[in-house]
Model the fold of this input.
Amino acid sequence: MALLEGLLGLGIVLATLWGALALGHRLPLPRPWRWGGVGLWLAAGAGWLWLAWWGASLAALVGMGVQMAALLAWWRRLVPQTERDWAEDVAHLATGRVVGERLTLDHVRHFDWQTRDTGRGGWERRVYDLQHLSSVDLIVSSWGRPGIAHVLVSFGFAGDDGQVDDFVAFSVEVRRARDERFSEIGGFFKQYELAIIAADERDAVRLRSNVRGERVTLYHSTLSAGTRRRLLLALVAAANDLAREPRFYHTVTANCTTLVFAMMRRIIEGLPVDHRLLLSGLLPGYVHEQGGLVEGYRLSELRRLGDITERARQAHDAADFSRRIRRGVPGWCE
Done:
């Protein structure tokens, strides 16, 4: 009996805390009223816990159950939006189409960032020849939190001279409104929509290395020609689906790592699930173990040689930015 009462008490505490966080992030009221609603929710939860403590377990169970049912009914009605005043860097989602061997991407971002929130430039339509798709690189940007990083996938296309000199980077991101700031906790509670962005490498890399002061590491992938083509088209298909039917971002289940892994698992059978898929900063170790990075190097060597932070800062707005940052990276000749 004591065990059941203890479990009931624990359940009430967890439900109360979850509900408070959900209301705190999503209750559509001005801040003072929203915090008032959170306070009332916490007070009600404390009341049910008090009843359970004094032996009225059934009343506490029924009361908390009704309270949670009402909250979940509201929670299920929250749907992702397509029309909001979006932040500048996520104003447009990537969309694309393939005709023959030509891939057309409708919204490729090419900003020259002055601050983390403001930049010159815009969005443009670009066409890529799939027959010239020559490389896939993993770009990992970290900002000092152990195990946490942002992951981009960059595809390179060769020119007429055979040199790979045209790159487009795909990034799975939080789609924030203009006045919103990112919160990992908010990412658990339907606070943000999900975005797939296509960007010029000078935009995507410099925003992180030169403006935000993050450490950026580039890992060359050894995926076969067929696999990298399927991955690119899978990203474009996912982007098109997202543009048609918006989804919420989730800190764990729908982020920059888990979405790409889900695509790769459909392409390559038997890829194991691993905790490093949840800790995006550890993803290169997982890819290395699966044979997806350049052979003959320890992971620590790939990380050291692939640190492009300083090279990106020195290259700045050079026309051959992507070539410069790859000098010395294993798998690249320059």
